Amino acid sequence: MVKMALSVSTLMVFSLLSLAPLCFSQKSKGGYLYPQYYDHSCPQAKEIVKSVVAKAVAKETRMAASLLRLHFHDCFVKGCDGSVLLDNSSSIISEKGSNPNRNSARGFNVVDDIKSALEKECPGTVSCADALALAARDSTVLAGGPSWDVPLGRKDSKGASLSGSNNIIPAPNNTFQTILTKFKVVGLNVVDLVALSGSHTIGFSRCTSFRQRLYNQSGNGQPDYSLDQSYASQLKKNCPRSGGDQNLFFLDFVTPTKFDNFYFKNILASKGLLNSDQVLLTKSEASMELVKKYAENNELFFVQFAKSMVKMGNISPLTGSKGEIRKTCRKINNS
Ligand code: HEM
């Protein structure tokens, strides 16, 4: 039984790794991204995105977290190509219905608002994928996090991948090794994994994403003992054994709306909310060292977060004549 489980997971690791060269070779797709891409064609693009995001976040603080996550879910599936934004249609099976996104991914209306403001000023010029990359940066800054120049010039995809969304985006109950492998498949390493997980310094999780830890961590009816037991009792009040699946919990219960390094401090105190957060401390020496470093030094976290966001934003973009500039982020042109 154990042997079989091992061989299934080994098989998965190999099949994921075999996809790697397809996923992050930018050069093969014929171009590079750079921050000045719209300086002539739409000089106001960055300001337009920033002002729509600022309004949306002023209305609802959580929107910063939701937009940041949307960019991650875009980039991991077929690269940063706006695929996550496509609705179901006759030719598209939307990624919005995948396990990681269903009843969870949000911010699509704000992306619509950004896109229509961009279309008004510079019709047919700025891609949805770039708009989302800028929105993720602006969201981070608005929440108090670091800033960075966003390389631009991505085109939008003409398709989506439901299976990619289900299989490549890490799940909260994946093992550390599986999560790291999923990052490696898209060209990211353990440093990127730990720094980018720091996004969980803002935003919410639903009860259903961590319930297992409270009641039945490994199938024997026992809780996860790497979770602080008084914190666990608090969580149980609104995350019962059954029901309340959609109830919301802060990912960082100390400073839930501020982008800072409390996420890492919480993990050191055995108060990381998701299993995927806590395993960064408990399952790998390399990631444990990084968690400690970022908990100690906010500046170090910020510098690495910015670098890793640029790296994530570079995952196989469509450039040049590949892809299109969608008129509406929810559907491909001429459909
Ligand atoms: C390392 C693997 C990761 C796993 C397993 C993971 C998993 C999750 C889960 C389960 C949630 C809660 C969803 C829900 O219950 O509705 C969540 C929320 C969130 N994730 Fe991650 N995540 C990971 C990495 C990342 C990365 C790389 C980013 C961004 C760069 C990110 C940004 C966020 C944000 C900001 C939220 C809160 C969203 C909101 O409040 O709307 N996560 N993540």
Order of helices and strands: HHHHHHHHHEHHEHHHH
- Structural domain tally: 2
Pairing-aware structural class of the strands and helices?
A: mainly alpha
Q: For the largest sheet, list the strands in their spatial order.
A: 1-2
Describe, in plain words, how this protein is organized in 3D:
- The protein is an all-alpha fold and 335 residues long.
- The protein contains 15 helices and two strands.
- The chain is globular, with a radius of gyration of 20 Å.
- The N terminus is likely disordered.
- A two-stranded antiparallel sheet has the order 1-2.
- It folds into two domains: 148 residues, Peroxidase, domain 1 (Orthogonal Bundle), CATH 1.10.520; 136 residues, Peroxidase, domain 2 (Orthogonal Bundle).
- Helix 1 packs parallel to helix 8.
- The structure holds protoporphyrin IX containing FE.
- Protoporphyrin IX containing FE (HEM) binds next to helix 4, helix 9 and strand 1.
Summarize the SSE layout with pairings.
Elements: H1 2-18, H2 20-24, H3 45-59, H4 63-75, H5 108-121, H6 128-142, H7 162-168, H8 176-185, H9 190-197, E1 204-206, H10 211-215, H11 229-238, E2 248-250, H12 262-268, H13 275-282, H14 285-296, H15 298-313
Antiparallel strand pairs: 1-2
Helix pairs in contact: 1-8, 3-5, 3-6, 4-6, 9-14, 9-15, 12-14, 14-15
The structure holds protoporphyrin IX containing FE.
Protoporphyrin IX containing FE (HEM) is lined by residues 62, 65-66, 68-69, 72, 104, 106, 170-172, 179, 193, 196-197, 199-200, 202-206, 209, 251, 274, 276.
Signal peptide: 1-25
Binding site for heme b: 200
Family: Belongs to the peroxidase family. Ascorbate peroxidase subfamily.
